[in-house]
Amino acid sequence: MTINHKRRLLLAGVGAGGLALSAAAVTAQNQERVIKVVAKKFDFTPGEIRLKKNQPVTLEFTTLDVVMGFALPDFGVRTDILPGTTARIRFTPDKAGQFPFHCDIFCGSGHESMTGTVIVT
After folding, report:
1. What is the pLDDT of residues 50-91, one digit of tens each?
2. Does 104 have pLDDT greater than 80?
3. Phi and psi for 48 in degrees, rounded to 5?
4. Rounded to an integer, what distance in angstroms lies between the CA atom of residue 107 and that of residue 88?
5. Which three-class secondary structure state does DSSP give residue 109?
6. Which of 26, 39, 65, 74 falls 20 to 30 Å from 8 in CA-CA distance?
7. Which residues, 6+ apart, have CB-to-CB distance to 28 below 8 Å?
């Protein structure tokens, strides 16, 4: 093996390593935040969700008891939450402040207290 051939192999290895590091950095930046939310009579956990303005987020909902809904009217998002499934909402908060959310499917007496707050900073 000549010295030029060894140099080429060394440069190719360094280049491949650099590309792998760059790809890993881009992937890490593109991973959006996922927040799991559990709905149960008559509560959302967590009841307070903190987000960053202009950063995409996915909310993942589950419930173990009855059909429920999630509505966040200030951002125009809502979903049904069915027992045994996972519902997802992806959105990007474009304004800062405190925004109420609530269950919008009657789930029993106490339904009216099933609320929470999204805080966007």
Report:
1. 999 999 999 999 998 999 999 999 999 999 999 999 999 999
2. yes
3. -130, 125
4. 20
5. coil
6. 26
7. none
Backbone angles phi, psi at 26, to 5 degrees: -65, -40
| Tokens 């987020």 belong to residue | 57
State which amino acid sits at residue 3: I
* Torsional sign, CA 81, 85, 91, 93: positive
Single pTM value for the model = 0.74
**Could you tell me if 59 and 39 are in contact, meaning their C-beta atoms sit under 8 angstroms apart?**
no
Give the phi and the psi of residue 116 in degrees, each rounded to 5: -170, -175
- For residues 62 and 84, is the Cβ–Cβ distance under 8 A? no
Measure the CA–CA gap between 52 and 32, rounded to whole angstroms.
11
Closest CA to 99 of 73, 79, 61: 73
